[in-house]
Amino acid sequence: MNYLLPLRVSDVEVRRKGRRLLGPICLAIEGTGITIILGPNGSGKTSLLRLLHGLERPLGGKVEWNVPEAKAQSAQSFVFQTPILMRRSVLDCVAYPLTLRGMSRSAAREAAEVAVNDAGLGKVKDLAAPMISGGEKQKLALARALITNPEVLFLDEPCASLDGRATGDIENSLRAAALSGVRILMSTHDLGQARRLADEVLFLVGGRLVERADAKRFFGEPQTGEAQAFLDGRILV
Ligand SMILES: Nc1ncnc2c1ncn2[C@@H]1O[C@H](COP(=O)(O)OP(=O)(O)OP(=O)(O)O)[C@@H](O)[C@H]1O
Ligand SMILES: [Mg+2]
User: Fold this and answer.
1) For position 236, what pLDDT does the model report?
2) 85-144 tens-digit pLDDT
3) What separation in Å is there between the alpha carbon of 5 and the centre of ligand 2?
4) Quick one: which atom of ligand 1 is closest to the CA of 43?
5) Which atom of ligand 1 is nearest to the CA of 49?
6) What span, in angstroms and rounded, lies between the C-alpha atoms of 75 and 171?
7) Which of 12, 22, 43, 57 to mutate to test the pocket of ligand 1 (most atoms within 8 A of CB)?
8) What residues flank ligand 1, with Cβ below 6 Å?
9) d(CA 144, CA 215)
10) Per-residue pLDDT tens digits for 175-226
11) What spacing in Å lies between the alpha carbon of 9 and ligand 1's midpoint?
């Protein structure tokens, strides 16, 4: 059961130095599955994810979870495009969110051991996290994000610089997480990935939500010229 949702975003704007980066946006996130956020460079994908996760304060409007803010915060995770990793072993990095929540170090390491093996990182578990490969780092970031059993998981282009194999592994982990009930919102530039993963699509242009549709409809019969142009690979301005 997902207690965090629905998430309601009403009339929200994000501005920096007087410039509007995002909005006004009205949006409700509920249900299950994977929402993919698409849009050209600079369209506001990262800003939207950061806003939903509480990293970006809206100038106007509201971002409301179904539970109080602090509770909502503790049940969501964020995977950044470039993971921020501590100078600890892979195993300790994955265990860390659990010890932060009060679990004993040995219990946390035990749980992390399972998660690290599931993520295909068993061979590198004792290496210092900054030393492992880019694909391994992103798998680590995902394992660390999932170990607290979040209800909602945000990911900002997690596979941006990964090869096909690492991307496939991450996609499998995301599918498994979604099946187990984690509500996923993720941005990507990779249309193939969007087609493989999306249950629904949010399409942004110029900080505005131009189209929202279930994936089949978005890819099959986009309703706006902008979405059609984007899918055809024509550049949007
Ligand atoms: N800290 C900031 N200060 C000023 N402008 C910013 C800041 N962060 C982002 N922007 C601007 O906000 C707009 C939206 O940026 P955002 O990073 O959300 O887009 P994006 O869709 O994630 O782009 P990309 O596909 O390149 O990752 C861009 O025009 C960007 O230049
Ligand atoms: Mg971005």
Assistant:
1) 67
2) 889 999 999 999 999 999 999 999 999 999 999 999 999 999 999 999 999 999 999 999
3) 24
4) 21
5) 18
6) 21
7) 43
8) 16, 21, 39, 41-47
9) 28
10) 999 999 999 999 999 999 999 999 999 999 999 999 999 999 999 999 999 9
11) 19
Looking from the CA of residue 17, the nearest atom of ligand 1 is: 4
Q: Note the helical H segments in 77-200.
A: 90-100, 105-118, 134-146, 164-179, 191-197
Query: What are the φ/ψ torsions at residue 152 (nearest 5 degrees)?
Result: -130, 135
The predicted model scores a pTM of 0.96
Q: What is the pLDDT of residue 143?
A: 98
Pairing outcome for strands 200-205 and 208-214: antiparallel
Q: How many CA atoms lie within 13 A of 56 on its CB side?
A: 22
204 CA: nearest ligand 1 atom: 21
CATH of 1-75+150-237, one of 3.40.50.2300, 3.10.350.10, 3.40.50.300, 3.40.190.170: 3.40.50.300
Instruction: Return the domain boundaries, the chain.
Output: 1-75+150-237, 87-149
- Cα(18) to centroid of ligand 1, in Å? 14
Ligand 2: centre distance to CA 41 (Å): 7
Q: What is the 48 CA–ligand 1 centroid distance (Å)?
A: 10
